[in-house]
Specification:
Blueprint (H helix, E strand, L loop, with lengths): L2 E3 L7 H7 L6 E9 L1 H10 L3 H14 L6 E4 L2 E4 L3 E8 L5 E7 L4 H18 L10 E7 L20 E4 L3 E3 L2 E11 L5 H17 L2
Parallel strand pairs: 5-7, 7-8
Antiparallel strand pairs: 1-4, 2-10, 3-4, 5-6, 8-10, 9-10
C-alpha cells in the first residue's frame, strides 16, 4: 500500500509548491526508440513485442526514484512497487485496461502478462493495481504509424503515460516513435530524459 509523505521531506517539495495547483502540470516528451533488438528477440523466442516493450518500460522506471512518488488529489504518495498498464482488445471488440506488476524477471513478467491480458480480454473487466502500485499508463495504437501524441490533462489521472503506434523498418533496423507524458510534481525534465535514455539502454541490452 502507498503511504502519504510530507512533500517538505522529499526532493519534490519545490516542484510540489510550483506545480500542484497549475492548470496544466503535465509535460510531454517525444523520442524515437531503436527497437530492433525487441523485434528480433520477439521473433526468435515467440514473445509479444508489446510485452517486451512494457517490461523494458518497467525496468527503466524502476531505477529512478521519482517514479515511486505520485501526486494524487492534493497529496503526495510514495509507492513500493511499479506496474505497467497495457490496453487489451476484448471479446466485444472494445478495449479494456490491464495493469501488470513489474518484475525484474522477464519470464515472470511474461507469464503475468499473458495470464492477465487473457483474463481481461475474456471478462471485459479492467485490472487495476493503482491502489497498491505506481502505474505507468500506456496506449499502443498498433494499427497505424504515428509521429507523436499529446495525452490529456484530466486533473485526476496524474500517472506517467506512454503512447506509441506501429514500429517502422528502415533498412535493417526497426524504430518506434514514443510519447512520454509526466506530471511535473513527480519529476523534472532531467528525470524524464534519464528514463528515456534508460529505456533505450534496456531495449538494446535485453538478451
Amino acid at each position: 500500500m502507498p503511504k502519504e509523505v510530507n512533500p517538505q521531506e522529499t526532493t519534490r517539495f519545490r516542484a510540489f509548491e510550483l506545480w500542484m495547483q497549475a492548470p496544466n502540470p503535465m509535460v510531454t516528451f517525444m523520442k524515437t526508440m531503436d527497437v530492433t533488438n525487441l523485434v528480433r528477440i520477439g521473433r526468435k523466442q515467440q514473445l509479444k513485442f508489446n510485452m517486451l516493450f512494457d517490461y523494458c518500460i518497467g525496468k527503466a522506471a524502476a531505477a529512478i526514484r521519482e517514479f515511486y512518488l505520485l501526486p494524487v488529489g492534493d497529496r503526495l504518495l510514495q509507492y513500493d512497487t511499479i506496474a505497467v498498464n497495457t490496453i487489451v482488445k476484448n471479446i466485444k471488440g472494445e478495449v479494456s485496461s490491464c495493469d501488470i506488476l513489474y518484475s525484474d524477471d522477464l519470464n515472470t513478467f511474461n507469464q503475468e502478462y499473458l495470464k492477465y491480458t487473457a483474463q481481461v480480454a475474456q471478462s471485459c473487466q479492467d485490472r487495476d493495481l493503482s491502489a497498491d502500485s505506481m502505474v505507468i499508463g500506456s496506449s499502443a495504437i498498433i494499427d497505424t504509424e504515428i509521429d507523436g501524441a499529446i495525452g490529456m490533462n484530466s486533473g485526476i489521472f496524474n500517472n506517467p503515460f506512454m503512447i506509441w503506434g506501429r514500429y517502422r523498418r528502415k533498412f535493417f533496423r526497426y524504430y518506434l516513435p514514443v510519447s512520454f507524458q509526466f506530471h511535473h510534481v513527480q519529476m523534472d525534465g532531467a528525470h524524464a530524459g534519464r528514463f528515456l535514455a534508460n529505456l533505450q539502454h534496456e531495449i538494446s541490452a535485453l538478451g
